[in-house]
Structure formats: C-alpha cells, structure tokens
Amino acid sequence: MTKRKDRYVFPAIFEYTDSGIGVTFPDLPGCVSVGENDADAYRMAKEALSLHLYGMEEDGDEIPKPTPVHKVEKEDPNEAVVFIDVWMPPFRDEMEKKPSKNRNRSSMAEQNGGN
C-alpha cells in the first residue's frame, strides 16, 4: 500500500468560459470539477481533489508526483494554472464516518431477518 501523505498540492487548469469555470488536473485524469466563479471553482476543486486522492489511497493506487508549474501546459489563453492544496486528515475522518453501501445493505438485511 502506498504511504498516505497528510498534504497534497496539485496544479489545476481553470478554463474560463461564458458558462463558468471548468477545472481539470493534468496529473490526475478523471479528476474534474466546475464552478460559477473563482472562489466556487477553487472550493469545488479542493473537494474533487480530496475525493479523488482518497479513492486512490483506498484502492492502493500510486499517487503521481505533481507537475512543476513551469511544465504545466495551457492550451488556451482563457486558462490559468492554479495550485490546489488539500489537507487530508479531516477529509479521511469524514469519509470513514460515512457508512458504506455494503454496510448499509448488511444492516438492513439484519433488521429484516436476513432477507
């Protein structure tokens, strides 16, 4: 299992459009988010990054090293590179308090006499 770090910082690409801000993480395919403005996009990006990294940790996936800012490639002048910083301990605690679907099903089955 990969050693879990308490803090991660990854570059994100904020793409500004007429309908809002799309957020992607070049180092983490599939980790995406959106926001209505900069503050909303930043908050949603932190949430998406935390959830994505938590899932990778739980699956035992290797978490890549972040690309240095000077090597992050923007494809459009309407894009900006923003570093997103997440502190994982409180996020992990919150996720571990949430019941999993399997635990919910088991509890429901027990309450219904095992059916």
TrEMBL record:
Residues 105-115 have a biased composition (Polar residues). Gene3D superfamilies: 3.30.160.250. InterPro entries: HicB-like, TA_system_antitoxin, TTHA1013/TTHA0281-like. It comes from the Bacteria. SUPFAM superfamilies: TTHA1013/TTHA0281-like. Residues 94-115 are annotated as: Disordered. Residues 17-93 form the HicB-like antitoxin of toxin-antitoxin system domain. Pfam families: HicB_lk_antitox (PF15919). This is Predicted nuclease of the RNAse H fold, HicB family. The lineage of its organism: Bacteria, Bacillati, Bacillota, Bacilli, Bacillales.
